Amino acid sequence: EATASALLLRAGLALLAWPVYLLSFLGIWEPFCKKVFFPFFLEKISGAHDKKSKKYKQELFRNLPDFRGPSGELRLLEIGTGSGSNFQFYPAGCKVTCTDINPNFQEGLSRNMKKNQHLHYEQFLVAAGEDLRQVPSGSVDAVVCTLVLCSVQSVSSTLREVLRVLRPGGAFYFLEHVAAEHSSWTYFWQQVCYPTWKLVFAGCCLTRELWKNLEEAKFSELKIQHISVALPWMPIEPHIVGYGVK
Q: Which of 2, 3, 110, 184 fits as disulfide partner to 191, beta carbons 3.0 to 4.6 Å?
């Protein structure tokens, strides 16, 4: 996959990040990353990312009310809620179930809940995207997932769970960073950063071609747009945004 020069630079980067590799080897990094570093970093980075992606999110979530259930209510499940930076885009009265594999986002989460009192917060589940067994099949009108599919263990299992919990006619909304064009410099740097980035940022994979997983999943209708969300010094510029209907 990676060229010789990418592998050389990759080794150089690993050398620079050797304290993290050592802490990981000693079993210290993962718990520290999960509890302290990742929630802190994610809050900082998602602030910058939100500014850049705001117009795409506004556009993306504009038709959420169209997917209200027969009762006129909109029941929404978010996978990987983190600190809740998407709450501002959900329509008033929406019933939200939040899930995240990492329960250490309380601070940011309660701040965003206070800011967004137009929503009904139903429940908070500590769950991985691949295993939403606490959510009954066909019980939600919309599922939302932003910047999460890069770090799930299995994209296809997560999409299977999405389709299971959605009612027929419900929609899955996504905005995710993806692999760059293979001949591009961005892809070269994604190759260089890959192992160290994955270790430092809680399993985040830089080179997933997520549009392929979405096309393989069994959506009756799928809208995908390739966009660019540039953050300084971050190899995550190429993104996809859109929704699929069950």
A: 2
| CA-based nearest residue to 239, from 184, 182, 189, 175 | 175
Query: Residue 73 and residue 244: Cα distance in Å, rounded?
Result: 20
The pair of three-digit structure tokens given for residue 48, joined into one six-digit string: 């910058």
In this predicted model, what pLDDT tens digit does every residue of 135-171 receive, in sequence order?
999 999 999 999 999 999 999 999 999 999 999 999 9
Report, at the CATH architecture level, how domain 1-245 is classified. Answer: 3-Layer(aba) Sandwich (3.40)
Q: Helix H segments across 147-226?
A: 155-165, 185-200, 210-216
**Contact call for residues 195 and 35 (beta carbons, < 8 A):** no
The enclosing H or E element of 96 equals strand 95-100
Residues 6 or more apart whose Cβ sits within 8 Å of residue 61:
86, 89, 90, 144, 173
Q: How many angstroms separate the CA atoms of 79 and 97, rounded? A: 9
The residue ranges of every structural domain in the chain are 1-245
